[in-house]
Fold each of these.
Amino acid sequence: MNKILKIYKLLYDEYKPQGWWPILMSNESEEYATLYHPNDFSYPKNRDQRFEISIGAILTQNTAWKNVEKALINLKKQDLLNCKGILRVNEEKLKELIRPSGYYNQKAERLKIFADWFSKLRKIPQRNELLSLKGIGPETADSILLYAFKIPSFVVDAYTKRTFYALGLIKKDSKYEEVKHLFEQNLPKDFKLYQEYHALLVEHAKRFYLKNKNSKEDFLKTKIHH
DNA sequence: AACCAGGACGTGA
DNA sequence: TCACGTCATGGT
């Protein structure tokens, strides 16, 4: 078994399935929260849910999910968490609603641009189409493809790089596409596996590779060799 | 009370 | 191509 797949199995055995992507739900008392759904890999119910996941991917750029959740709830309460809603609301109002997620000036503009593109979307998007939109870089594009459209496109984030650099599997200055290829060339092309692997790496890195606070020794270091 | 979070873009060399 | 500054709120 190759090392990349072995690491996945070690992570999967260590942590519970993570159930990304978190979706906005309301409980009995009509309070909203984003919830994870372990072992649920069903295709997004409808167009609105694919849109919600995409918007979340944009809003979470360099931002803690808790802050994104606040923004999503603000939009939902105004019935604006859908393509038409984002197109309808005026940009200043949009800025106000997504303010908790940070960078709200640029993110508001980018949500508008994305909603405009999404409204004309009639087929599965290509990666290059997404990358051509202002505000969507490689990680956001891959997140949208993988979680909103269930296309096996591996997501590489800062946590992934930190962990794999610590394990000696990539260089510190490895490019996004290099790391992406490393995973995709060593894994079966399975969107469920890609989703779970990415989420598990985030969970692992939060425990062992928080910036400037890597106190504990990564258990993977000893186990990946035998 | 600094430091950082599930990045991306514009600029200058 | 690429290093660097910028964008911004909220949690620890």
Amino acid sequence: MTSEKQEILEKKGWKIGSVKDFLGLTEEEESYIDLKLKLSANLRKLRIDRKLTQIEFARMIKSSQSRVAKLETGDPSVSIDLIIRSLLALGTSNKEIARTISS
Amino acid sequence: MTSEKQEILEKKGWKIGSVKDFLGLTEEEESYIDLKLKLSANLRKLRIDRKLTQIEFARMIKSSQSRVAKLETGDPSVSIDLIIRSLLALGTSNKEIARTISS
DNA sequence: TAAATATATGTCAAATATGACATAATTTCA
DNA sequence: TGAAATTATGTCATATTTGACATATATTTA
């Protein structure tokens, strides 16, 4: 299961990039995790740049502090959809999102 | 509601780009729809390039023909997550996905 | 240091997305 | 043309995602 493997990776401290050649991850799974973690990390960076706490940001996107925490760590329970909508709420453009993905 | 507005847009034949300054769409909603439609269109293009029918492709991603049809038209009921996983299943790289988004 | 503030983790009911099915509409081609 | 193949649309039970809550664990600051 993809989610479980991602969970393992994160528990072991794996971050952006460098997830290749590990366990039985297919290229597809690797790319998906990479993509998600890049967007998550970017979200955290932007929130901090704007000097917002997770609670403040959660109110902006009508969510909760705990979900923001999960968003920023690429938790298996969050969708790329929600990460992208959160980035857009911070004023991120599609081109910036594209740059993040290909970083 | 975002989904309803997107639905209206699509019923009226709106496609990639040019969704700005319409109804009460916020920048955020516009960007989200744009992003989704670009990825959807790219998915259809790649499937056709590979000479696959929707039924054949549906089997590859363990889904159904009807969902593939919805994926390719950016139906409000499909998530960006599924579109991205479908693109990855066709061997698309993250960089290619990024290029599609900023096209 | 200890209190205050901020972030992380686990859980769950409600909301949303999903595959599958039926069937309609469209396209292909003999 | 018209039958076959392909794609679109509507619906629904099931699966996944979500916000919210409680509470644990950092991190900051006085």
